[in-house]
């Protein structure tokens, strides 16, 4: 294994079509971003109105959508029309334009994160938009813009439940982003680079060979402890059970999104799903060898899809099975537990890598 | 046998004869006016606290079941129905007449906290005012309501028009001033976790609850008045199904049946009692399953699998009830003197279905223990939250799983036996944790006890000789209990002590029909559990109380 980093998607377009100018490069970048964005939005479209319902139904002994189309799949356009056709209610006293910006910012921040994620090969195309040297730091930065959106929505809605939700979102993100990033840093110590392709590339090396099958050195296998830490912090970062307290429907109605309806609600809903997928993508890149998997390199995108959908399934499983923690317990777990463990992990990793290397 | 209660040696255990009680109260007693269920002492309206305190502290009457109020031609009257938690068959009623023109009576609130809401209700519906009451406001009707609907001169045709300035903003006082650092939050009447239309006026200090005040009455349907305008024999029985409508219908029907049968001196055939007992316990399982399901919803969040699993189990028992009664929700199955019809034919099929249900129940309960009670996060959330010490529970008149979760060993099925319970082998479940977790555990264990009862009933019914299957006693077509007989009788409903007070006036309709709702008293304890806790704990405490607003508001 260990192939050279594939050509980036925009460069591929430039080369294939022979667009050798600045305008051409810009156009190619836009087209590439458009394609990648739409892939993710398509995932979301399947996940939100259909897959989520089916998965939850399977966990709870129900049937769920099965009336329209094969396996109820046509509920996707039906739900889209239904959601968008609803009246957009703008409550009195909302603080515009921040009330309007918040629902756009959430999906935008999550989509932005995908710009540096290497999503694997599909035929000759490598679905990877950009590979800056600080890609690893960038993706976390993009992902954390979401908190800004939640605070904006919570504060601008002029609703006490929204405010509580917004405040909870900040408290939660502060408490979990630090352990998340510190744990991710322990991976950087292994890989020695912040470049996405480098982090993924380092994981293709063989860890051990058992009966002729070489096991790649995915960091989940190299450092399972860090993997579990990262997974937990990631669940909190994207606000899923048992850490879904910024929304906590049985406590604060719907948290920051209480006052949103119609298209704005769709945007929030969309943003949350894109965030789950981004969370899955970050997890895949950091700990699960990115898009790599058995089989030819040219279909590695499929492995990437499997991994992020696997993560999505995991979030739904947790949602069906786990109780929600209380806000003070959540903060306590974050600051007193996760932070300490993540620093311990970082120091230990540094020492071990330092001694071995 | 398991039904025997431990001996208590304190003063409360001593049973006093009515004459001894009269001697104890001495000059306080003005007159005797005995009820069918208990001796009743008439006292002056300004000695309520003294009388109740004497009875509570010196004679051990520590349970104020209910305050029922009514208006006569020449006076108003409040009746304090007292019992003992240690032995609810020891009852005494304190009758407090009040002046017709100026109905003022001393409040019992300083002695029994539970009197707070009960007296507010008496004020709201009847019009008696209580001196020394901390918060004499309407409770069920809007603050702007004109007149007292159950009083004699109430004009029901008068339009209830409240002009805008008159309809003062009820929240005006709560609006924060510049210095205040708390936030007022309305939880409900429409909120995902209020289990119906309940309004919690909450004052928050950050995420913590500084004060919470339940505001009820959104589902008030004049159930008492409807019962007062129906005939004993047929027209009242359908209503109890609509009080606690979470499939506890038969338990509610039994409350009315018990009171009316004792009032009219009707003997219920044994066979019917066994069917009643079986049906009632099925209802209890259904009600507790829903309590567990919604509690999981409150703690785990929507889409929790536990909710659907519990609903599935409830569905199974619901099917059995459908077979038995022909209805799924509003059973209307009991009749005075028995039940409306015998078990469904073929009987064997019904028995085998019931046994199938009982056989798989332990497996389900095990699964719930796996899913929720043994989950560490769940324990973190529920253990030591929503604390209700036993003394506080008693002071508020809490009963049912709420009281038993605080270690108060009080269950009318055993302590004041009715139906077929005292012939069967089962246990009263108590837990000492006093927290949300204990209340849940009590319900889960009670489901297993109910299953034991049903199993024994099925055994009995299977072997019942065919020619002795008498489902109804011979009851006159029209019942006219003697004028001025009064009775208060309670059964163990799904949520606790469900009692009915009836005063007969010689006609075929009750002159006063008062419902003692367990949820009404239980809900009063919410501020005790919630103050100082976090918002999620308030939700959990409310869920663990398992209130049904249809029964709170009636």
TrEMBL record, chain A:
It is a multi-pass membrane protein. Signal peptide: none annotated. Keywords: Membrane, Transmembrane, Transmembrane helix. The chain crosses the membrane at residues 26-47, 68-89, 134-156, 176-194, 206-233, 266-289, 301-318, 338-356. Pfam families: NADHdh (PF00146). GO terms for biological process: aerobic respiration. It is found in: Membrane. GO terms for cellular component: membrane. GO terms for molecular function: NADH dehydrogenase activity. The keyword Membrane applies. This is Respiratory-chain NADH dehydrogenase subunit 1.
UniProtKB/TrEMBL annotation, chain B:
One of its GO terms (cellular component) is plasma membrane. It is found in: Cell membrane. It is a peripheral membrane protein. Gene3D superfamilies: Cytochrome-c3 Hydrogenase, chain B, NADH:ubiquinone oxidoreductase, 30kDa subunit. Keywords: Cell membrane, Membrane, Multifunctional enzyme, NAD, Transport, Ubiquinone. GO terms for molecular function: NAD binding; NADH dehydrogenase (ubiquinone) activity; oxidoreductase activity, acting on NAD(P)H; quinone binding. The keyword Cell membrane applies. SUPFAM superfamilies: HydB/Nqo4-like (SSF56762), Nqo5-like (SSF143243). Residues 42-157 form the NADH:ubiquinone oxidoreductase 30kDa subunit domain. The keyword Cell membrane applies. PANTHER family: NADH DEHYDROGENASE [UBIQUINONE] IRON-SULFUR PROTEIN 2, MITOCHONDRIAL, NADH-UBIQUINONE OXIDOREDUCTASE 49 KDA SUBUNIT. NDH-1 is composed of 13 different subunits. Subunits NuoB, CD, E, F, and G constitute the peripheral sector of the complex. In the C-terminal section; belongs to the complex I 49 kDa subunit family. This is NADH-ubiquinone oxidoreductase chain 49kDa. The lineage of its organism: Archaea, Methanobacteriati, Methanobacteriota, Stenosarchaea group, Halobacteria.
